[in-house]
Q: What sequence folds into this?
């Protein structure tokens, strides 16, 4: 069998990439690392590399401690083995991030490890969508054939999910999560801060970078809402060159706390992101129902 196709998943933050990773992880024709986000291509800067390596090292320590606890618990040896396997994969990745990157051989070997007989390997790191075209072109040259998938989610829903995640991280003990999330959302709508939240969900800008660096037949931009359907999964499988293997559309991965976005803030967000809706309709075709619903909400609440 020829060498597997290399897939880069570069979707926006909170746009379904974790679910997509799990879909590929469960597919019998794919070899996907235990580590979802490798962060190889966005850590060439020494400061970024040091920060990411520190984060990975802390994860390794926590994983090995958890594995030790599971190992002595009755009937939990399987869980300990899974945690150790994840820690080992992270440790190997740390060595690559700190090692020689000329030619990207160590990274390629890490991805291809265990891929014998498989048709696809993948690095699903959403932050790659922020990379400049020259880095994307370098990524494209790692294997004999590379594919890129950029997932997009209803702009308002993605933004609110990102905000809820931030609110949960920032919340002090005993704090009100809904109130904290509302404060962050208002700051974004009023002042565009924190800016990185909007940058991570700037679909038109990411698409411009990707389409300027990757051949059209090797780039797929997809509604994550459609990927949850059988038709969407079949189309994605065809693009990736793998067989259709049904994924559980009801399973959600890293789903945030269930806090409803107030209608007035949803309407303001939809108006702020109107260009993203227009871009999607123009570039990807008919908007999924969730996208249409938020546009209708903005229209009902007026300017």
A:
């Amino acid at each position: 069998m020829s060498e597997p196709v290399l897939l880069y998943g570069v979707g926006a933050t909170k746009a379904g990439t974790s679910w997509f990773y799990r879909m590929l992880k469960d597919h019998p024709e794919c070899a996907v690392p235990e580590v979802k986000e490798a962060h190889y291509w966005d850590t060439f800067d020494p400061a970024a590399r040091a920060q990411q390596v520190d984060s990975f090292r802390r994860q390794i320590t926590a994983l090995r401690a958890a594995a030790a606890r599971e190992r002595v618990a009755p009937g939990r040896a399987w869980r300990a083995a899974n945690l150790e396997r994840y820690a080992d994969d992270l440790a190997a990745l740390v060595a690559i991030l700190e090692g020689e990157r000329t030619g990207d051989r160590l990274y390629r070997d890490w991805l291809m490890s265990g891929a014998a007989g498989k048709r696809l390997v993948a690095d699903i790191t959403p932050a790659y969508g922020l990379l400049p075209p020259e880095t994307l072109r370098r990524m494209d040259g790692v294997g004999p054939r590379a594919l890129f998938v950029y997932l997009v989610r209803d702009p308002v829903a993605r933004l609110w999910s990102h905000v809820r995640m931030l609110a949960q991280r920032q919340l002090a003990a005993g704090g009100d999560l809904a109130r904290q999330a509302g404060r962050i959302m208002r700051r974004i709508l009023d002042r565009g801060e924190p800016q990185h939240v909007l940058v991570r969900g700037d679909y038109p800008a990411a698409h411009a970078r990707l389409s300027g660096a990757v051949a059209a037949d090797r780039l797929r931009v997809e509604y994550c809402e459609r990927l949850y359907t059988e038709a969407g999964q079949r189309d994605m499988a065809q693009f990736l060159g793998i067989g259709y293997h049904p994924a559980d559309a009801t399973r959600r991965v890293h789903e945030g706390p269930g806090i409803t976005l107030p209608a007035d803030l949803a309407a303001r967000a939809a108006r702020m992101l109107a260009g993203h809706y227009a871009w999607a309709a123009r570039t990807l075709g008919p908007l999924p129902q969730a996208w249409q619903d938020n546009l209708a909400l903005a229209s009902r609440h007026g300017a």
Residues 45-100 form one domain.
